Amino acid sequence: DFDSELVQKTYDILSPHVVGPTGRRVEIFYDQVRLKLGRRFDLDFMNALLCSTGAVPIVSLDALERMKRINRDSPEDHLLMEWSLILELQAAGRLKFCVPVLVGKVEEGSAIGNFFADDPFSTLPQVVPTQTVEEVKSFLA
Predict the structure, then answer these.
(1) Torsions phi, psi of 140, nearest 5?
(2) What's the whole-model pTM score?
(3) Domain limits of the chain?
């Protein structure tokens, strides 16, 4: 799908680069590369965020479409856990920056539509998915 390809290309482009006067390598957490079989996915990505300087989440209309089906009793959602943890870490001053990449509707050809054209946030449910919130709270405790 488009989201997966975008994340893969972003990883491929940024990973080999170094920045700053000391030539520090940009470390990117990409689950397809960093996660190991037999380990807990949720703990690995949350620990990676905890050790990060910043976050650049990819927020697409497709991802938000999934969020429309979430309700109070939904099982934990890893993407929502990631976004929630980013906000919690930023509020606590442990994450220096968050720069979301917003991706609109993928059109035919090479065009990507305006993310805000149809006000995607107005259609999200006004609920707190208990299990997702509890997982993030438990991790931060």
Answers:
(1) -80, -15
(2) 0.83
(3) 38-140
